[in-house]
Amino acid sequence: MYRFLLISLILYIIRRNSAYPFLSCRKCCLYGIKESFNGREATMSFLPTNRRTLIILLLAGVATGLVNGLVGIGGGTIVIPALVFFLGVAQHQAHGTSLAVILPTSLTSALIYWYHGHLPISLTFIVALTGMVGAYIGARLMNLISPKNLRLLLGLFMIVAGVRMLWPSS
């Protein structure tokens, strides 16, 4: 449930900064946003008013957590396609939402892995620090890539990663 609330909060923040066209009037209803065109401030409920949207977000959240905890990959493989293809969210916003969802899901999984002795702290610390540098650079570069190319890049990366996992390790 906290994943869904986090996604709703992120959508609210994005909406408040309203430079994002994916939350047009038509889509505002999709996300449960009540908007007034009389100059009053927009308000948003944390639960979508559309039942289909709620079901898709709940299923995507559960699937993301399951995949994260089971095989240790981020939610991008689930969240981004669900948001883009089922809810019509713009590619860049889907990536941003996916990144925000990674923190609570990964933290939850990491704590359980740590509890069972499967989290080497020295390796984690080094990879986390260098990963933060790479994340900063990647997030800056993402703004230079068109949505079409970003989708293509994500698809190619998922294919390469999947094929690589099928090869036996040496």
TrEMBL record:
Cellular component aspect of the GO annotation: plasma membrane
Main location group: membrane
Topological type in the membrane: Multi-pass membrane protein
Annotated compartments: Cell membrane; Membrane
Keywords, ordered alphabetically: Cell membrane, Membrane, Transmembrane, Transmembrane helix
Segments crossing the lipid bilayer: 54-87, 99-115, 121-138, 150-167
InterPro entries the UniProt entry points to: TM_pro_TauE-like, TSUP/Inactive_protease-like
Signal peptide: none
Taxonomy, superkingdom: Bacteria
Family membership: Belongs to the 4-toluene sulfonate uptake permease (TSUP) (TC 2.A.102) family.
PANTHER family: MEMBRANE TRANSPORTER PROTEIN MJ0441-RELATED, MEMBRANE TRANSPORTER PROTEIN YJNA-RELATED
Protein name per the record: Probable membrane transporter protein
The organism's taxonomic lineage, starting at the top: Bacteria, Bacillati, Bacillota, Clostridia, Eubacteriales
